[in-house]
From TrEMBL, chain A:
Residues 130-432 form the NADH:quinone oxidoreductase/Mrp antiporter transmembrane domain. This is Multisubunit sodium/proton antiporter MrpA subunit. Keywords: Antiport, Cell membrane, Hydrogen ion transport, Ion transport, Membrane, Sodium, Sodium transport, Transmembrane, Transmembrane helix, Transport. Belongs to the CPA3 antiporters (TC 2.A.63) subunit A family. Residues 638-702 form the MrpA C-terminal/MbhD domain. Signal peptide: none annotated. It comes from Fontibacillus phaseoli. InterPro entries: CPA3_Na-H_Antiporter_A, MrpA/MnhA1/PhaAB, MrpA_C/MbhD, MrpA_C/MbhE, ND/Mrp_TM, Proton_antipo_N. Residues 715-792 form the MrpA C-terminal/MbhE domain. It holds the Pfam family Proton_antipo_N. One of its GO terms (biological process) is sodium ion transport. The keyword Ion transport applies. The keyword Transmembrane helix applies. The chain crosses the membrane at residues 6-25, 32-53, 73-101, 113-129, 135-155, 167-189, 209-232, 244-261, 273-291, 303-327, 339-364, 376-399, 436-454, 474-494, 531-549, 596-615, 627-648, 653-673, 679-700, 712-732, 772-790.
From TrEMBL, chain B:
This is Multisubunit sodium/proton antiporter MrpF subunit. It is found in: Cell membrane. The keyword Membrane applies. It holds the Pfam family MrpF_PhaF. It comes from Fontibacillus phaseoli. Keywords: Antiport, Cell membrane, Ion transport, Membrane, Transmembrane, Transmembrane helix, Transport. The chain crosses the membrane at residues 6-26, 38-58, 64-83. The lineage of its organism: Bacteria, Bacillati, Bacillota, Bacilli, Bacillales. NCBIfam families: PRK12600.1. The keyword Cell membrane applies.
């Protein structure tokens, strides 16, 4: 199975070659032709898996990455992964084919484009075939990064950069949440493998981290799949080149969250929280997306909101399908299994029609230079093929026969009708809302699909509004959307081929505990006159009426206050977060050293005194102390007087003299405590320091030389007394807590060990000579530093003089 | 015993002298008074170190006595020069 591995990493490998191809061959051949080989070969390779996977086989291959930490890159192919893999490589091939004609060979930096695109493709393939949670997360973030790069492809535009930043912020935020959820899962089940997690389901479900892990993972899924309220990045991501929008923001990346939810359904499904969040958020997103899509006049944001709405539909179907886990295998479980099946089916359908619709928008943009429906109209006769494709895609999105959207929408209606009758998780009371919301949202969907198709292609043709001569797109550009449009129709007529070979194994992967007979999963276009069909008829009727009357209500709908949009909240939130953190930082980072010292000292006192009190560490023990002689006391008094003089001195000379007196007194103390070497050194150092102070004193700037007392501040007094008290208490307590004998006896042998009668010197140069060496280097550095400072200053002084 | 008592009394007297000098350091109306007092502190410290060495029967502190003598001279000179000229080390001109 190492070939599987090779194929997942093929896009990355090829991305390394792309710049060379671009540099040496771009003049002759569009770089995209070379890149096209990659998804095509992956697609063909993955197609060979279908028979085996359809018969229930799975494949895996493990590559040890960091074996000591248990981190491997496990590739695992089952039905769900294969469905996504086929979508990624298939739509990827079509998108690259389309981009060859869309992206100019002359004007665009094609190597960047294809490197990012290949990077994304590889990341997405790695994502769907990963069984290891951390590898999954790695690929997940790689899709975020490559999407960021692709959105900001035209980086000289401000809107591109803003859209890219917004999508990065939101998806990475969710990604981090997901990582936290994954880590909780790993802690619960003590395994990194998704399959083993599913096997250890009961351990996880009883664990206290079950709900937090679920919420964190759902955060990741919802941000990636642009669910409410994280959907705002998707419309802004429309600044990307259209092939990118078509590939990432309709067919693949936004489905990564769907994939995650589907993958995690066996673990989390069956719990009421999961059901309510997934299906509730899904259905809100469905309504929100379809309502907001109505208000758009630009085609790409319209499609973006429609993508959001369709993703909400799939998400809510997955939530409803998770009820099957609750019921288990059996009559009522099977009903909800069909919901999951519908989710997978609509996922496939959406990729086909939405991909083609984006490509259509790209063609319109490319040929007319406009994307705003207020300028477009009457293109039906000018661009008949494009119109046909748009009609197929639009009607499929609206859920009309004979297109695949009809089938999945019928199944969706069936699922929401079933869930309102489920009678668990408090569905009795508000379960009836599900079909109503779904139905209303479908009406809006129908209306915006009509707006999309009819406002662009119907009506009158206004060549004066378009700044170029409009004609049908080149055939190369039309191939990819034509293939997708063909799929849309084919799936309607032969849904069971797709169902049997691709969707059924995927369903087994999502709900491994269910045993479903193929009869239940038969998709049929006609199953008698029932509620679903009536609902669809109602959608067409009401939607048609609404479309007719759109002149009455659409302008009002478009005047929706900007202050209430999610975008506004996001931007305001970002701005106020910046403002708030700036003001916070400015408040405490005052630039005044006094304040910083205050923080340091207060923290010091709080930490040390606090922990002393907390651990009952304050205990004084004077039993071992020596007697205090009268001249000791006298010296201490002298020192206190000198120290106070330093503080209260009226001018600096007094302070310097008092400091010198203090230093001399300290050396006297060294004498009393029998430390002749210390006393010597202290004496010299004190004298030198005093002389240095005098030197500095002279060089103080004129303004500050006004002689004044140190100004009095209460906070300073309190803090300084607190610090002194802390150190005193700490020292006295430490003195009473001697736990071990000192090791002085070893050094007393200095004559025998080192041939030295002076212990202090023996310690300095023999026993602990290393410290001395470093202190010598400290002195050297200080000396050099002073020299350099003086030299630099005098040089600069000369330059000033020269000026 | 009497010897020790004598020595301690001598030390105490010296400490008292240092305190008296410090009074001058703190109070001293002019800087010259203070410097003088500091010099005197140094000499008193020399004396007390000498008495202390006798008291301890050691000659480990004799170096210190010499050093303080030198340093207190240098310090006083530096102060004096500073007070007179405003600089300690003059530049060659």
């Amino acid at each position: 199975m190492i070939t599987l591995y090779l194929f997942i990493f093929l896009p990355f490998i090829f991305a390394c070659i792309v710049p060379l191809l671009y540099k040496y061959l771009n003049r002759q051949v569009h770089t995209g032709w070379f890149v096209l080989v990659v998804p095509l070969s992956i697609l063909i390779y993955l197609l060979t898996f279908i028979p085996a996977v359809a018969s229930g086989e799975t494949f895996e291959y493990t590559f040890s990455w960091i074996p000591s930490l248990g981190i491997h890159i496990t590739s695992y192919v089952d039905g769900l992964g294969l469905l996504f893999g086929l979508l990624i490589s298939g739509v990827g091939a079509l998108v690259i084919l389309y981009s060859i004609f869309y992206m100019s060979k002359v004007r665009e930096a094609l190597h960047n484009f294809y490197i990012y695109l290949l990077m994304f493709m590889g990341a997405m393939l790695g994502l769907v075939f990963s069984d290891h949670l951390l590898a999954f997360y790695g690929f997940w973030e790689l899709t975020s990064v490559s999407s960021f790069l692709l959105i900001s492809y035209w980086y000289e535009r401000k809107s591109s950069r803003q859209g890219a930043m917004k999508s990065m912020l939101i998806t990475v935020f969710g990604g981090f949440g997901m990582l936290a959820g994954f880590i909780m899962l790993i802690m619960m089940a003590d395994t990194y493998s998704i399959r083993e997690l599913i096997a250890n389901m009961d351990v996880i479900q009883g664990h206290s981290l079950f709900i937090p892990a679920m919420l964190c993972i759902l955060l990741g899924a919802f941000t990636k799949s642009a669910q409410f309220p994280f959907s705002i990045w998707l419309p802004d991501a429309m600044e990307a080149p259209t092939p990118v929008s078509s590939y990432l923001h309709s067919a693949t990346m936004v489905k990564a969250g769907i994939y995650l939810v589907a993958r995690m359904t066996p673990i989390f499904g069956g719990s009421p929280v999961w059901f309510w969040i997934v299906s509730g958020v899904g259905i809100i997103t469905l309504l929100y997306g379809s309502l907001t899509a109505l208000r758009q006049t630009d085609l790409k944001p319209l499609l973006a909101y429609s993508t959001i709405s369709q993703l909400g539909l799939i998400m809510s179907l997955l939530g409803i399908g998770s009820l099957a886990v609750y019921f288990g295998p059996g009559e009522s479980g099977t009903v909800f299994t069909v919901a999951t099946f519908a989710a997978l089916f609509h996922l496939f359908n959406h990729s086909t029609f939405k991909g083609s619709l984006f490509m259509v928008v790209g063609i319109i943009d490319h040929e007319t230079g406009r994307r705003d429906i207020r300028y477009l109209g009457g293109l039906m006769h000018v661009m008949p093929i494009t119109f046909t494709i748009a009609l197929v895609g639009g009607l499929s999105m609206a859920g009309l026969p004979p297109f695949n959207g009809f089938l999945s929408k019928e199944m969706f209606f069936a699922a929401v009708l079933d869930v309102s009758k489920a009678g668990i998780f408090g569905l009795n009371s508000i379960g009836a809302l599900f079909p109503v919301i779904a139905w209303v949202a479908s009406i809006f969907t129908f209306v915006y699909c009509m707006i999309f198709v009819l406002k662009t292609f119907g009506g009158k043709y206004h060549p004066e509004r378009l700044n170029r001569k409009v004609h049908e797109a080149p055939i190369g550009m039309l191939i990819a959307p034509m293939v997708l449009g063909l799929l849309v129709v084919l799936v309607f007529f032969f849904p069971n081929v797709l169902g049997k070979y691709i969707l059924a194994p995927a369903l087994t992967a999502v709900l491994p505990m269910m045993t479903v007979s193929s009869y239940d999963l038969k998709i049929s276009a006609w199953h008698g006159i029932n509620y679903e069909l009536l609902m669809t008829l109602g959608v067409i009727l009401l939607g048609g009426l609404l479309y007719m009357a759109k002149k009455r209500w659409l302008p009002t709908a478009r005047k929706f206050p900007q202050g209430w949009t999610l975008n506004h909240f996001f931007n305001e939130g970002l701005l106020s977060a910046e403002r708030w953190s700036a003001s916070l930082t400015n408040r405490y980072m005052t630039g005044s050293l006094r304040h910083y010292l205050l923080y340091i000292f207060v923290f010091f006192v709080l930490l040390l005194l606090g922990s002393l009190l907390w651990f009952h560490g304050i205990r004084f023990d004077f039993s071992d102390n020596a007697m205090i002689n009268i001249f000791d006391a006298g010296l201490v008094i002298c020192m206190v007087i000198s120290a106070l003089t330093v503080l209260l001195a009226a001018n600096r000379i007094v302070a310097i003299v008092a400091l010198g007196a203090l230093g001399y007194m300290v050396s006297m103390f060294f004498v009393i405590f029998r430390a002749p070497d210390l006393a010597l050194t202290q004496m010299v150092v004190e004298t030198v320091t005093t002389v240095l102070f005098l030197l500095c004193f002279y060089h103080l700037p004129k303004l500050k030389r006004t002689i004044e007392r140190i100004s009095f501040k209460w906070t300073n007094l309190v803090v300084s007394i607190a610090v002194g008290l802390t150190v005193t208490v700490l020292g006295l307590s430490a003195n009473g807590h001697k736990l071990f004998e000192p090791i002085t006896s070893f050094f007393e042998n200095s004559y025998k060990l080192a041939g030295a009668k002076n212990i202090v010197n023996a310690i300095l140069v023999d026993f602990r000579g290393f410290d001395t060496m470093l202190e010598i280097s400290v002195l050297t550095i200080a000396g050099l530093g002073v020299y350099v400072l003086i030299r630099q200053r005098s040089k600069r002084g000369k330059e000033h003089e020269a000026e | 015993m009497i010897f020790d008592t004598l020595m301690i009394i001598a030390l105490c007297l010296l400490v008292l002298a240092i305190m008296a000098n410090l009074y001058r350091v703190v109070k001293g109306p002019s800087s010259a008074d203070r410097v003088q007092a500091l010099d005197s502190v140094g000499i008193n410290i020399i004396a007390s170190i000498a008495v202390f060495s006798v008291f301890l029967h050691t000659h480990a502190f004799f170096d210190l006595i010499l050093l303080i003598g030198i340093l207190s001279f240098i310090g006083t000179t530096a102060f004096a020069k500073f007070l007179e000229r405003g600089v300690v080390i003059e530049r060659k001109r």
